[in-house]
Structure formats: structure tokens, C-alpha cells
Design brief:
Strand order of the largest sheet: 1-3
Number of helices: 11
Strand content: under 5%
Largest sheet: 2 strands, antiparallel
Radius of gyration: 23 Å
Distance between the termini: 60 Å
Shape: elongated
Number of strands: 4
Length: 278
């Protein structure tokens, strides 16, 4: 007779009362699925699955036209000043590289912020946006986007105002980008504080883990379940519906997702560490 093998005890991370471990440095950047690995679709751009999913960047629908306007202003300024300096040709390599850099930045923001649906779904646009998500993740966050547009505002100011090409347009375009950048940063700071306060309530006040927050038999939380979880533990007034979408976007490991928070994403977020940037 053979004695049955002893059952392997469940790991501590799966026990409801287990305390979350310290968040490993750069854990998201080293995940295989985040870099287009085990959970990725090799047939899609950059290795990410885009079948039936929504690009996380597109969660900022109410802000997309404002960001798109900033991208148009930056690109138009770069093109106009390049034409100006070609017509008034002088040997100025620093100016040349400055204007080319601003044009590249403007085109990159056009790709990232285009609100036109059929352009969003173009395979080349999706491939470019996926690469931006992988290598410039800060641009998909309110805080990062705000800082970036403030930087672009300085470039537009230097191109139009400092050179004296057009003081009026220089002032108007710079003012728009500065207001856009400050507004985006303010929204990011507010959302980051809300998400960090929710983290502290769940972990420090109530001692909850990802496994205890997800209903049995489920692999994650839908947007409605995430909203219900926030209402249960923190009150329904803590986050508005659109802010829940922003929070889910910030928690996502991949650029394409179906509006759900997986158990791995919840587990990573609940680990001790710095606040998650939104």
C-alpha cells in the first residue's frame, strides 16, 4: 500500500490574514506580462493583447481633447518655426536640433492623445502607443502628462517668444500649455492622494488582502465591483465614476485591459511602498 502524499500547505500570501510583503523595487518593470511576456499576445503590436480590450491611455476621455489641443499647438509651432528658419537660413545647429526635437515630441503627443476612433484603432498608431506605454509610462499618468506639457510650454515659449517670431502666438500657446499642465498635475495629485488613502484604509485600518477583497471564484474585480468595494470600506463619495476608471488605469500592468483589476494588480498595489502615481 502507498500512503497518499501529504498536501502541500498553501503559501502565506494566500492566507487571508497574511500581511502584505514589501513592494519589490521596479517589480512592474520586470514582470513578463508587462514587457510582453507570458500573458501577452505575440501577434499584437509590442506583444500585448488588444483583442476586445481598451487601451489604458483612452480612459482619460474627458481630458483627451484638451491634451490633443496641446499636442496640435506643439506640432504646429514646431512646423511653423522650422519653415521660418529655412526661409531665413543661418548656420544654427542648436536651433535646428531644438526645433526637430519639439516636432518629434509634438508628433508623439498627437499619437498618444488622438481622440479620433478610427485613428486610435489603426495598427501603426496602436503599435506606437504601446511602445510609449512601455518606455514612457509617465506620459499615461496625469502627473507625468502635466509635467510633460509644462516642459513643452517652455519649448514653445523659446521658439516663438524668445526668438521674436510671434510674441502674441507665443504668449497664447504658452499660456494654454501651462494651464493644461497645471490642471493635469492637480488632478493627478488629487487622484494619487485618494488612491493612497484608500490603500491605507484597506491595509492599515482593516488589514485586508487582495484575496479577501475579491469574491470567491473570481480572478479580479470589475469596475462595478471595484466601485462597490470602495463604497463598502470608504464610502461612495470617495471617488466619482470617472475617477474609478483613472484608478483602474493606474493599477493596470498592461496598456490593454478590459476595465478589470486582477488579483496580481491588487496584490502589488496593497504591498507597502510609495504611493502609486495616477
Amino acid at each position: 500500500t502507498h500512503r497518499p502524499a501529504a498536501a502541500t500547505p498553501p503559501p502565506a500570501a494566500q492566507l487571508g490574514g497574511a500581511r502584505p510583503r514589501a513592494r519589490p523595487a521596479a517589480a512592474m518593470a520586470l514582470r513578463g506580462d508587462f514587457q510582453g511576456g507570458s500573458m501577452a499576445d505575440p501577434s499584437s503590436p509590442g506583444g500585448f493583447s488588444s483583442k476586445g480590450d481598451t487601451l489604458a491611455i483612452e480612459k482619460y476621455l474627458k481630458w483627451s481633447w484638451g491634451f490633443f489641443g496641446g499636442a496640435v499647438l506643439t506640432t504646429a509651432t514646431a512646423l511653423c518655426t522650422i519653415i521660418y528658419w529655412l526661409r531665413h537660413f543661418t548656420f544654427a545647429p542648436a536651433t535646428f536640433f531644438f526645433e526637430i526635437s519639439m516636432l518629434v515630441f509634438g508628433l508623439m503627443m498627437l499619437v498618444l492623445d488622438t481622440p479620433i476612433p478610427h485613428m486610435q484603432n489603426h495598427r501603426h498608431i496602436q503599435a506606437a502607443r504601446t511602445q510609449i506605454y512601455k518606455f514612457a509610462l509617465f506620459m499615461t499618468r496625469f502627473l507625468g502628462r502635466g509635467l510633460w506639457y509644462l516642459f513643452l510650454a517652455t519649448m514653445v515659449f523659446a521658439s516663438l517668444w524668445d526668438t521674436g517670431i510671434n510674441l502674441v502666438l507665443g504668449g497664447i500657446c504658452t499660456a494654454y500649455l501651462v494651464v493644461l499642465g497645471i490642471a493635469a498635475m492637480g488632478k493627478g495629485i488629487m487622484m494619487t492622494n485618494k488612491l493612497n488613502r484608500l490603500h491605507d484604509i484597506l491595509v492599515h485600518d482593516k488589514g485586508l488582502t487582495a484575496e479577501r477583497l475579491i469574491p470567491g471564484g473570481h480572478t479580479g474585480l470589475s469596475a462595478e465591483q471595484f466601485k462597490a468595494m470602495i463604497g463598502l470600506h470608504c464610502g461612495p463619495e470617495m471617488m466619482k465614476p470617472d475617477e474609478i476608471e483613472y484608478a483602474i488605469n493606474a493599477l493596470a500592468f498592461t496598456p490593454f485591459h478590459d476595465g478589470k483589476v486582477t488579483v496580481e494588480e491588487l496584490r502589488y498595489w496593497l504591498m507597502p511602498g510609495p504611493p502609486l502615481m495616477v
